[in-house]
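Let us begin with a simple case.
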Amino acid sequence: MNRLCRWLNSLKLAHIFSFLLVLGFVVHMAAVVLLRMHPTINFAEMEKIARSLAQHGTFANPFSMPTGPTAHHAPVYPLLLSLIFRAFGYGTAAAYAMAAMNISFAALQCALLPVLTEVAKVRRVVGVAAGLFGALVPFRIKREIRWETTLSALAIVVLALLTTRWWQTTRPSRSYTFFLGLAWGAGMLCCPPLLLVFLLLLLFFGVSAWKRKQPQWLLTVAIAALGMAVAVSPWTIRNYRALGGLVFVRSNFGIELDLSYHPGAHASFADNLSIGFPNNYYHQQHPWANNEVAEKVRQIGELEFNRQRRRRAIDWIRANPRDFAKLTLERVFFFWFMQPQSQPLKALLLVPWSLLAAAGLWRALRRRLALGSILLCLWIAYPFIYYFMQADARYHYPIDWTLALLAFYLLFGDPRTPTGGQEISEVSENLDRSLGG
């Protein structure tokens, strides 16, 4: 192991990054071809918004009929998808371009893991092993080629990297702190659940800085929050003008809560979608599938429609507390360990893998690693909203990389071992100078 570590430390970090980037892209694209997946454009809400952007330049019409402006989806991924539609149309070429874009995000995610461990002062072998695992084992390839999950995962890796460096700085500069807040706000425009992660991180950082009697810690927290608010404000202002009310990134919580808690509800999205098709609750009550429901959205507006659906779901929850508890506990289990009926072997393998990662997180926290505190916040806050939504494997994908990183940290990591070279120091110094730190 020591010989391997010395060899990895002798390599340039840029070369490792480039190798993992190419390897991840080639392997994941090869999986698409060899498994004969044949990507297609399925026009659900996200794709319909992208089509509206491509054809009319409006963020609108996610449902079965035109309903006007929308905030049903976070804006970044539909915007990127609309560029593909403009360039390639809506057929096979566009589907493969979408798959290639998503796989590029996945490959970047793998390539950045050694950079993250370098910044976190963890042995380089941990990041390389996690990056190789992600590049060589595309076990969620079906989720990668269509959904926005790879973009969300990439955003979270980048934010973990930036936040680790910020957390480890004794006196983070105001400019870098503001930049970090901007980055988190941009991440929320890709993945809205990051709001809870960001707030918990600020709380953890504030308590830690207060205990260390770090000067001006409250100002530091306020500057980071201001940066986040600045990043999301253009989209918030647009939503207020277009929809007539305040919306933080997405407006669809009411719909999703109603589809998750109702008479005959199942814990998973797949069951709610397929059992009883086409006369099940999902297809009768979702405006994507039912013209009459979509017409109601058009008449009363997206925000009021979601308010009504949220009230209906809450009324059901109050009337059925046992069913609510059962569905929620099932979704907690499915989030971390998958639904065993759908893919029993994968679900079985995920149990020890997740437990190994949990042990790695415990070790990182005992060693007082900044990255350990950041990943703890991610594990606590990111999945919270999904515990109350129809379970689907794609919701876990953005933090899959943390399992690999923490599992390999348990096996190979030792923060007392020096990392490879002066490269990260030089990067940090250049970033400080560019941000005025």
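The second case is a distinct protein. As before, the sequence precedes its structure tokens.
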Amino acid sequence: MTCFGSSPMFIIWSLSEFNSISSGAGRIIIASCATILFCFISGKKLPKDLTIWKFSIIYSFFSISLPFLMVPLALNFITTSELAIYLASIPLFVLILAKLILKEIITLKKWIGFFIGIIGLIFLSEPHKFMIENFNELIASFICICISICLASGGIIIQKMPKCDPISFSASSFLIALIISLPIFFFLKPEEINFGKPLMGLLLAGILSTSLGGLARVLLIRRAGAVFTSINGYLVPLVTCSFGILFLNENLTLVMCISFIIVILGIIISQNIDEYFFKIIKRPLP
């Protein structure tokens, strides 16, 4: 959770020298090199099964390239804390995608939780304030929701694909992302790249947040499933908000707090966390 939660702060650092698209592409390039290198150092190889490569291409586009290129765009207009709350909605979108793709049964309770969470996102975006002058914030909100849907789809893709070594799958997916990102980065990168806080932010976002975090995510989903992994994602906003307040001098507004509570309430209801919690309380002591 710390890997993903620290990512927006590192991206904010990079945006002082890199533009939005080159920051996203640079992050992917660094993460790809680190993941592929780790794959070969650990004695693994790239997949040989063509089916796995098909899943790698789909996962790479929807859950690596597209969302990580969009994150810096959103951070130009909203704070890291606001982004984190939008990303807390990922379990809600996993719920819908699991119904559509995995054909899982969604109970009335889960539908209620989903709509409560959506209300939280709408409340966060404060639609009554959207005029022409702050149209950028509306676009940023839409981008954040698209990012959440993309990342949610990644969990479904991983759960649906055939059995495969997680490290090999991560390496093949990042290899595809590397091919996509290289021309984008070299076309839009700054004329001169200085070693300083912006480059350090890009390196940390690539290695810590994207490569290490992405590998951990694949391992968790393969072992515990997309729904379980997405539920744990609600801790990410807490980490992101903490980093934003401590290191970026961001303010946590009342609207953001209420929105976060509404989203988490929706997740608790939709994923039966409340029932699990009461089972733990009622469990007899050893």
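Confidence is low (pLDDT under 50) at residues 276-286. Residues 2-282 form one domain.
Keep these points in mind for the review questions at the end of the chapter.
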